[in-house]
Design brief:
Helices cover about 55% and strands about 15% of the residues. With about 290 residues, the protein is α/β, with parallel strands linked by helices. It folds into two domains: about 120 residues, Collagenase ColT, N-terminal domain (Glutaredoxin); about 140 residues, no CATH class. The strands form two sheets. The chain has a five-stranded mixed sheet with strand order 1-2-3-5-4. Helix 2 packs across helix 4. It is globular and about 60 Å long. The termini are far apart. The protein binds zinc ion.
C-alpha cells in the first residue's frame, strides 16, 4: 500500500503537471479556408481574429500579386494563430522579450499573440500575415533586405497608412529623408541604443546634396517610414503584377538592383533611378 504522504505528494505533483499542461492542451479551435485560430476563452475575439485574418489575407495576396498562388495556404498548409488569454501567459509560453506583443514564425507558419483588442486585429494581424505571405513568396534562399520585408509588412497595416503618408510628407518637406542607397546599406540592428548624433548624407527636395544629424532612434524611425514608403511607391505606381515579378526575381537570387531592373524595365534601371522616381512620387503627394 502506498504511504499516505507519498500518495498526497503524487496527487499534488500530478495536479501541478496538469495545470502546466493545461494551457496547451485546452486549446479550442476555429477554422477557415486559410487559417486555424487556437484560443482558450474569448470566443468572440477568436472569431473576429479569424474573420480579420481572411480579409487581410485576400487583400495582401492581391496587393502583392500573390493571389494566383493562394492554394499553397489551404488545408494542412493553413496558418495557425495562437491567442493566449493574457500577456503574461504569452510571454511565459514563448520566451519572448518583455516588450513583445506577438511573433510570427515563418518556418512553421504560425502567429502567436494574446488577447489585446483592436490593435491585434488592425495592426499585428495584417503585419504578421504580410510577413508570412511575403516570405512564402520569396522563399528563404534569396537575400531579402530588412527594409523590404518590413516595408511590405507595414504597408499591409491599411489603418495606419494615412498617418504614415502624412509623416513621410513632413520628413520630405523638411528635407529629413535618407538616401535610398543608404536605406539599402544600413544595418539597423547595429544602431539600436547608440548614443550621440549620427551623420548621414541626404538629398533635399530641390535635389541638392546635404547632411543629416540624427539620433539613433530618429534614424531608425525614418528608416522604417522610408521602407513602407518605398514599397508603397512600387505598388501604387506600377501595380501588383510588376511587384510580384520583382519578388520572383528576388526569390530566384537576384540582387535588389537587378530585380528592379528586370521587373520595371525602362522605369528603374538602378538604385539612383529608384530614388529619383520615389522622390517624384513624394513630390506628387505620394
Ligand atoms: Zn515586422
Amino acid at each position: 500500500m502506498m504511504h499516505k504522504k507519498l500518495r498526497l505528494f503524487l496527487f499534488v505533483f500530478l495536479g501541478v503537471l496538469w495545470l502546466a499542461a493545461g494551457n496547451a492542451a485546452d486549446w479550442l479551435e476555429k477554422k477557415s479556408e486559410h487559417f486555424i485560430v487556437y484560443f482558450n476563452q474569448d470566443e468572440k475575439f477568436a472569431q473576429a481574429v479569424l474573420d480579420g485574418a481572411e480579409k487581410d489575407y485576400r487583400q495582401i495576396a492581391y496587393d502583392l500579386g500573390y493571389a494566383r498562388y493562394s492554394e499553397f495556404w489551404t488545408w494542412d498548409k493553413r496558418v495557425k494563430i495562437y491567442i493566449y488569454p493574457d500577456r503574461s501567459s504569452f510571454l511565459k509560453a514563448t520566451g519572448q522579450p518583455a516588450w513583445s506583443e506577438g511573433m510570427a514564425d515563418y518556418k512553421n507558419k504560425q502567429i502567436v499573440s494574446y488577447v489585446w483588442g483592436k490593435n491585434f486585429i488592425e495592426s499585428l494581424l495584417p503585419h504578421e500575415i504580410a510577413h508570412l505571405v511575403f516570405r512564402d513568396f520569396v522563399g528563404f534562399k534569396g537575400e531579402i533586405p530588412l527594409w523590404l520585408d518590413e516595408g511590405v509588412a507595414q504597408w499591409a497595416e491599411a489603418a495606419k497608412r494615412k498617418e504614415i503618408k502624412g509623416l513621410i510628407q513632413r520628413y520630405f518637406q523638411e528635407d529629413n529623408l535618407l538616401l535610398v542607397s543608404d536605406v539599402m546599406r544600413l544595418n539597423i540592428e547595429n544602431l539600436k541604443g547608440k548614443q550621440g548624433l549620427l551623420i548621414r548624407a541626404t538629398r533635399t527636395k530641390d535635389n541638392k546634396g546635404g547632411v543629416l544629424f540624427l539620433s539613433a532612434n530618429n534614424l531608425v524611425e525614418i528608416y522604417y517610414l522610408q521602407s513602407v514608403s518605398l514599397v508603397g511607391y512600387l505598388i501604387e505606381k506600377f501595380g501588383s503584377n510588376a511587384f510580384s515579378g520583382f519578388c520572383r526575381e528576388l526569390r530566384d537570387g537576384k540582387s535588389v538592383e537587378e530585380a528592379l531592373k528586370i521587373a520595371y524595365p525602362l522605369r528603374i534601371n538602378n538604385i539612383q533611378e529608384f530614388e529619383n522616381g520615389w522622390r517624384e512620387y513624394l513630390k506628387a503627394g505620394g
